[in-house]
Design brief:
The chain is of the alpha+beta class. The chain is about 25% helix and about 30% strand. The longest helix is centred in the C-terminal third of the chain and has 23 residues, at about 130-155.
């Protein structure tokens, strides 16, 4: 689900060149997409869903550093024409970045009039992280990569209008 640029960002964030494969987790882009698709099949016209989160772990010496990729999707008033909650948006919080977009896809039962609003987040879970000042752009690259990956997985029209690179995203 992550691009080459995101792979580089991940090694910076986790300060590790070795990622740990968590066989018990089994969560990736396909599982996240399937959770959103199942939500659409429930017939719920409004509300919020959280797909299973994907934990990324790197080893550093004898320890581990952990980050998390997660998705949140909303139906209902999200994406209403004239709303400031439409189009590609970037959110930021301490040790976290999010990239939101509107997904129009038959796979999730959304239309141009009622798109599914998806936000992909990357959160740095490491206590010994170097933080936002050093890693903020890397967090953004990881959130962007996750957003692009899920837009492709869901077959969102025009890839949710997401730009090809994180550097082309709007300012938060």
């Amino acid at each position: 689900m992550i691009t080459d640029a995101a792979g580089k960002a991940l090694t910076q964030v986790l300060q590790s060149s070795h990622l740990v494969n968590d066989d018990a987790q089994g969560v990736g882009g396909s599982a996240m997409g399937k959770a959103l698709e199942e939500f659409s099949r429930t017939g719920a016209k409004a509300g919020e869903i959280t797909a299973p989160a994907c934990t990324v772990t790197g080893t550093v010496g004898g320890g581990k550093r952990v980050g998390e990729i997660r998705l949140v999707a909303e139906r209902g008033n999200a994406g209403t024409p004239g709303s400031d909650q439409t189009g590609v948006r970037v959110t930021r919080a301490d040790k976290e970045r999010g990239v939101a977009f509107d997904c129009v896809s038959t796979r999730v039962g959304s239309t141009r009039d009622m798109p599914l609003r998806v936000t992909a987040f990357y959160t740095d879970r490491s206590r010994s992280s170097r933080g936002d000042a050093v890693l903020g752009e890397d967090y953004l690259v990881l959130a962007h990569s996750a957003a692009v990956g899920i837009a492709k997985e869901l077959g969102c029209e025009g890839n949710g209008a997401l730009p090809d690179s994180a550097s082309a995203l709007p300012a938060p």
